[in-house]
C-alpha cells in the first residue's frame, strides 16, 4: 500500500488554523511533474549554454513550487 506525499507547513498566518497542507502538497506534486520534464531538457541545454541550462533545471524549485504552494492558503 502506497501513500501520497503530504507536505505540512505550520506557523503560517495565511489561515486561522495556522497550518497549510493542501498548498504545499500540490506544490510538491507540481514540482515533481515539472522536474521530470525540465531536468532532462536542462541537462541537454547545459552542454551548450551553461547558464541557460541551470535556469531551466532550477525552474521547478524557484518558480513552479512557490507559485502553486502560495496560491492555495490552506
Major sheet size, sense and barrel closure: 2 strands, antiparallel
Specify the structural class.
mainly alpha
Number of helices: 2
Order of helices and strands: EEHH
C-alpha geometry: elongated
Low-confidence stretches: none
- Secondary structure tally: strands: 2
Task: Estimate the strand proportion.
Answer: 5-15%
Helicity range: 55-70%
**What is the typical, i.e. mean, pLDDT?**
86
Q: Biggest sheet, strands in spatial order?
A: 1-2
Ends apart, CA distance between termini: 27 Å
Q: Give me the Rg, rounded.
A: 15 Å
Organism: Rhynchospora pubera
Protein name: Cold-regulated protein
Keywords: Membrane, Transmembrane, Transmembrane helix
If you had to describe this structure to a student in words, what would you say it looks like?
- The chain has 74 residues and is mostly helical.
- The protein has helices spanning 22-48, 50-71, and strands at 9-10, 19-20.
- Strands 1-2 form a two-stranded antiparallel ribbon.
- A hairpin with an 8-residue loop joins strand 1 and strand 2.
- Helix 1 (22-48) packs antiparallel against helix 2 (50-71).
- It is elongated.
- The mean pLDDT is 86.
Name the descriptors.
two-stranded antiparallel ribbon; transmembrane; 74 residues; mainly alpha; single chain; transmembrane helix; 2 strands; elongated; Cold-regulated protein; membrane
